[in-house]
Specification:
Elements: H1 2-21, H2 27-44, H3 51-75, H4 82-102, H5 107-119, H6 123-136, H7 141-154, H8 158-171, H9 176-202, H10 214-217, H11 220-232, H12 236-246, H13 253-266, H14 271-288, H15 297-306
Helix pairs in contact: 1-2, 1-4, 2-3, 3-4, 4-5, 5-6, 6-7, 7-8, 7-9, 8-9, 9-11, 9-12, 12-13
Keywords: Nucleus, Repeat, rRNA processing
Protein name: U3 small nucleolar RNA-associated protein 6 N-terminal domain-containing protein
Family: Belongs to the UTP6 family.
Length: 307
Amino acid sequence: MAEIIQQRIEDRIPELEQLERVGLFTSNEVKAMIKKATALEYKLHRVTISKEDFITYIQHEINVLELIKKRRSRIGYHFKREEIELTIMQRINNVFRRATAKWKDDVQLWLSHVAFCKKWNTQTRLSKVFSSMLAIHPDKPALWIMAAKFEMEDRNSSESARHLFLRALRFHPESEKIYQEYFRMELMHAEKLRKQQQELEQAKMDLGEYEFPKEIMDAKLAEIVYRDASTKVKGAVFVLSLLKIAEIFDFTKTLQDIIIQDLQSRHADDPLTWDYMAKRELEVGLGGEMGAELSTAKGRASDIARR
């Protein structure tokens, strides 16, 4: 055990030398760090180890990262990041991996690793963390949604997000939340493509090298998601939740009409359907009359009552 710990401490020497050489830490601080690191390493290599020892180790290393960040800002030194921060982050990731391998069922531990990767922008590592976490916890829809949103919003990969949603639905074929977020994702992707195309056209650039699939931009993929969802999850409440998501986007009139038709044909016996239709008709009517006054107050009241 002593040999392993000694090797781990020696592995730190290059990074510690850099910290002292560039003026981020003093010689005494480096010596104190070696002493602290040795004590923490011994705790992780005892016969009986605890989760708290791993958490303490990780928190210490994160505190070092935060301190380095502050001192870099103070002295204006922004070099040697690969030799310093990167090695510390790799060490933290390795300790997280050892901890989650031993305490697989601790979702909070997994989420702490996710939070660390997000804060320090280690996207490649984060994809691997999500993959490992979902292999252990496929029964938790929220984790699938979190992973898909990361792929869509942080890595800008709609294809990876779509793949995760489809995998999630194999485990949770009747999950309302997964279908809602999948539906929203397809519409967000369509909106993004439409904006990109518009910007390129305004700049009078050649669109030949760019891909703008019509089925995506016209919300056809979102429609497929809706149709699949509406056959798996029953009830007007769920259909209305998808309709309200579609209403957020200004290019979904056709999709909205499809959902409304289904709502009226499949859920005609549900009061929610007609409550929604009455409110929609009223809003449309009032919206159309903005700026155009009816002749009398009585006429306005009569029109509202009719609608």
